[in-house]
Design goal:
The structure holds two protein chains of two kinds.
Chain A lengths: L7 E6 L13 H28 L16 H25 L3 H29 L8 H33 L2 E2 H30 L5
Chain B lengths: L2 E2 L13 H11 L4 H7 L3 H30 L9 H35 L8 H23 L24 H29 L12 H33 L13 H35 L6 H14 L15 H13 L1 H17 L6 H23 L2 H7 L3 H31 L5 H27 L16 H31 L29 E2 L18 E5 L7 E5 L6 E6 L6 H15 L5 H18 L9 E3 L6
Antiparallel strand pairs in B: 2-3, 4-5
Helix pairs in contact in B: 3-4, 3-5, 3-16, 4-5, 4-6, 4-8, 5-6, 5-17, 6-7, 7-8, 7-9, 8-11, 8-12, 8-14, 9-11, 12-14, 12-15, 14-15, 15-16, 17-18
Classes of the chains: A mainly alpha, B mainly alpha.
């Protein structure tokens, strides 16, 4: 049994390497990516459930169930898509570590996301035109719209927290990487919603 | 990295860095006492309690099995009634799958992977602590419910409509659904942090083609978890629990729901789950065989390709659990073919291990005996699996003890044999001491005999038509003798596990001192002290081959190249590039905190409360938001990080 350790010989020095990074160089970026994969696949499964249950009905929505209204959801999805260039701008400013602009950008994003939450609540309560316990169609609609809504709400909590840090806390270099990551996450939330919006609000209105 | 010196290097690092070492010790040391226990983010401390907790659930679930075997030892025994029996097998299966087999493999990985890749800690240490607390709450929920006679009783896969509101009123099925929520969250966060550790914190030079096979196995497993676990989490938390709590109709055919949908979602998770359990076992076997055969594992590229292929094909098998349902003919053909196909990559690995042992200089230590036991037992389980890939055969043995025999061979063979072997191999790295080899030989021998005696007769019982999940049977059916034999086997397994526990408890205090590298191992964890310091490595090791501590096959390297320059005055880890592991940046690690504990506690309130009322989600998530704010709020401990000081500070 060896009781002694192997002698160590120096083969390089890393003391000059930076202590923060952006994108896939940053270790936190990989965590965000991991959760986007999990959440994205969760939404895919919700959509599969939706499509799977449809085969049990002769009409969609089933007879006696109102079709969803499309006005507010269409406004919502349009606003979401329109916000993408803005969040791209926030991400670019984060890469530049431009504190004043990132602070304003994150504040704007936090306000926007609260609007999205309110619109989502409206979509659930007023636009779907069906309760979750009416039939399997209603359950499926609530599953998809509600699951995405949960992610939206979590994003809002993160953005409000980040806004608080940027205004009140000791802002650190890593927070710019976090801001860039949340801008990516924003794009994920918006782009995953587009097909789900089609599935839940447009498809049941096709005649 | 500023300099990359090839060889020869002028001088070895001496003992003149004692001051830096003392600083490292101070910076990485956890707080003392209970507070330290609650706040630590050291991957080793968390992994140790994770492993121990998982073994506690294993022991409790094992006791359930003992009671079941005593009940079935003779016909018409009255030890337990049907209601208790239903809870016994449901909690046994659920605990073994959700609270032991997968978590214990992740727990071992949480301990070992950062050491094998030469990192100072796991990538996301707070998330790691959070995952453990979620796992703990899930286990307590399940077993507390069971001991209060409200344990789940609808089988570990909780098929609807049985587990739906109509056929299982009360809260038993809700306990099962929320236990799944806890364990799936724990499993998912562990997968994410292990992936980031593997992708971004490998030692300089450890390109993907120099990664130990065990690390490859965890990489594949973690990727599988990302895609498998969401299916069951949705099915249980968002669909089954909601059908029971707020009267959704996902599985209610009267309102357009579909019971078969549950089976699809469950097995889309449940089948890959089998591979999620034993692929880390394959990694353990590679490490054991390499260490004790004193030779690099034969066919490294083929081994890696086999692991990756297994991970992919595992997602194309789930319908073979549903051959007794109305599946289209084409679907049956496809899933039969896939079920046969998956035997190929596993078979390739078995041949590679045999070739390694054959061409090496094998030493038959206890760990190696467990690896050999794995090859035998797991191969038998694999063969009966291929048999059941045939629809005609599957329909004959569906829901019989043949299936019970098959999956116990797979799971004991694929999980427990490699796991026990791994414990014998790495116990020195956990504790600094060796497990007793003599007791170990008794352990492996009794475990091997017990496994075969307990489960081989079940094949025959199944072929004779004995259904699974019956609490008793009539004497004239003639199943008594084989059942008695199985019970004797189960008792022998119990004795062997007791020997293991005695060995661990005794060796932990009185075992022979191991030193850093008792087996002359090939991979980087053996370059750390035993047990490792809280910071794992004084300087980050450099990796120049797949066996960085060997100069050839089994020959110890003369020196270990290291890179210096990571901060000693604060917690810092080295981040390297994904493919080639070139040093890229230094990541400042967060401080210890109790926030993960509180976050898990608030989610505990949420999901346990949701068994009774949907408002628990509203209240619980609000509380979780507060916990998250405490978690994420910067403390300003390091002024050099600040871009802007706190408001009011100059």
């Amino acid at each position: 049994m060896s009781m002694t350790s192997t002698p160590r010989i120096p083969a390089g020095d890393v003391s000059e390497l930076p202590t923060s990074a952006f994108g896939n160089r940053d270790i936190m970026w990989w965590g965000t990516l991991g959760f986007m994969v999990i959440e994205g696949f969760t939404l895919v499964i919700c959509a599969v459930v939706h499509v799977y249950l449809r085969k049990n009905f002769a009409t969609w929505p089933p007879e006696g169930t109102m079709r969803p209204s499309v006005v507010v959801p269409t406004v919502q999805v349009s606003l979401m898509l329109a916000s993408l260039p803005f969040m791209h701008w926030v991400r670019r400013r984060a890469y530049e570590r431009d504190l004043a602009r990132v602070r304003r950008g994150i504040t704007g994003a936090a306000l926007l996301t609260v609007c999205f939450d309110l619109l989502r609540a409206w979509e659930l309560l007023r636009s779907l035109n069906v309760r979750w316990d009416a039939n399997a169609y209603g359950s499926a609609q609530w599953l998809v719209v509600g699951s995405h809504g949960t992610l939206l709400a979590i994003q809002s909590m993160e953005l409000i927290g980040m806004m608080a840090i940027f205004w009140l806390g000791p802002v650190e270099k890593k927070h710019f990487s976090d801001a860039a990551d949340i801008a990516n996450y924003w794009a994920f939330i918006v782009l995953t919603w587009v097909p789900l919006y089609v599935l839940c609000f447009l498809v049941p209105n096709w005649r | 990295m500023t300099t990359e010196t090839s060889a020869p290097v002028a001088e070895a690092i001496g003992s003149d860095d004692d001051a830096a070492l003392a600083e490292l010790e101070r910076v990485w040391r956890p707080r003392p006492g209970l507070r330290g226990w609650l706040t630590t983010t050291d991957h080793k401390a968390i992994a140790r309690r994770y492993v121990v907790t998982a073994f506690v659930w294993f022991a409790l679930a094992g006791l359930n099995a003992v009671v079941m075997r005593l009940q079935l030892a003779q016909p018409e025994r009255g030890l337990v009634g049907p209601d208790r029996y239903n809870q016994l097998f449901t909690v046994h299966g659920s605990a073994m799958m959700f609270l032991f087999a997968v978590p214990v493999m992740q727990a071992m990985a949480i301990y070992l992977v950062p050491l094998l890749v030469g990192a100072r800690n796991i990538s996301y240490p707070r998330l790691n602590a959070f995952g453990y607390w979620m796992f703990l709450i899930g286990g307590v929920l399940l077993f507390a419910s069971f001991y209060l006679n409200m344990g789940p009783d609808t089988g570990w896969f909780a098929y609807v409509p049985l587990s739906g509101p109509q056929y299982t009123p009360g809260k038993r099925a809700d306990v099962w659904a929320q236990m799944v929520t806890f364990t799936e969250i724990a499993g998912l966060v562990a997968a994410v942090e292990l992936l980031a550790t593997i992708f971004k914190t490998r030692a300089p030079g450890m390109s993907l083609d120099r990664m130990p096979l065990y690390v490859w196995s965890i990489l594949v497993t973690s990727l599988m978890i990302l895609f498998a676990l969401p299916a069951v989490a949705i099915a249980s938390t968002l669909m089954l629990a909601m059908d029971r709590l707020v009267a959704t109709h996902f599985f209610n055919p009267a309102e357009g729901g579909d019971p078969l949908l549950w089976q699809h979602l469950f097995w889309f998770f449940g089948h890959p789950e089998v591979y999620i359990m034993f692929i880390p076992g394959l990694g353990f076997v590679s490490s054991i065989v390499e260490t004790f055969a004193r030779r690099r594992v034969f066919g490294y590229p083929v081994m890696v390709a086999s692991l990756v292929l297994t991970g992919f094909v595992a997602f194309g098998l789930w319908v073979h659990h549903m051959f007794a349902t109305p599946i289209p003919q084409l679907g049956r053909g496809f899933f039969t073919a896939a079920s046969v196909l998956i035997a190929i990559p596993t078979g390739v690995q078995i041949f590679c291990w045999i070739a390694t042992i054959w061409s090496g200089r094998p030493r038959f230590a206890t760990a190696m005996l467990f690896a050999i036991g794995f090859i035998v037992v797991f191969t038998i389980g694999g063969i009966t699996g291929v048999m059941q890939a045939s629809v005609a055969f599957d329909l004959q043995v569906h829901d019989t003890f043949f299936v019970v025999a098959h999956f116990h061979y797979v799971i004991l063979g694929g999980v427990l044999f490699p796991l026990f072997g791994a414990v014998y191999l790495w116990f020195p790295k956990f504790t600094g001491r060796l497990l007793d080899e003599r007791l170990g030989r008794w352990h492996v021998a009794l475990f091997f005999i017990g496994t075969n005696l307990a489960f081989f007769p079940m094949h025959l019982l199944g072929l004779q038509g004995m259904p699974r999940r019956i609490y008793t049977y009539r004497p004239e059916l003639g199943w008594g003798d084989l059942n008695l034999l199985a019970t004797v086997g189960a008792a022998i397994i119990g004795v062997s596990v007791l020997l293991f526990v005695v060995n661990v408890l005794r060796s932990r205090r009185h075992g022979a001192l191991a030193g850093d590298d008792p087996w002359q191992g090939s991979t980087l964890e053996w370059a750390a002290t035993s047990p490792p310091a809280t910071y794992n490595f004084r300087d980050t090791p450099v990796c120049r081959s797949v066996t960085p501590l060997w100069s050839g096959d089994g020959e110890p390297a003369e020196a270990l190249p290291v890179v210096t320059g990571l901060a000693t005055h604060r917690r810092q880890i080295l981040v390297t590039t994904v493919l080639d592991a070139v040093p890229d940046n230094r990541h400042n690690h967060p401080a210890d905190t109790s926030a993960p504990f509180w976050m898990a506690a608030t989610l505990g309130v949420t999901f346990i409360g949701a068994i009774f009322t949907p408002w628990a989600y509203v209240i619980g998530f609000a509380l979780a938001g507060i916990a998250f704010a405490i978690w994420a709020w910067p403390r300003g401990d390091h002024p050099e990080d600040a871009v802007l000081p706190r408001r009011g500070e100059s």
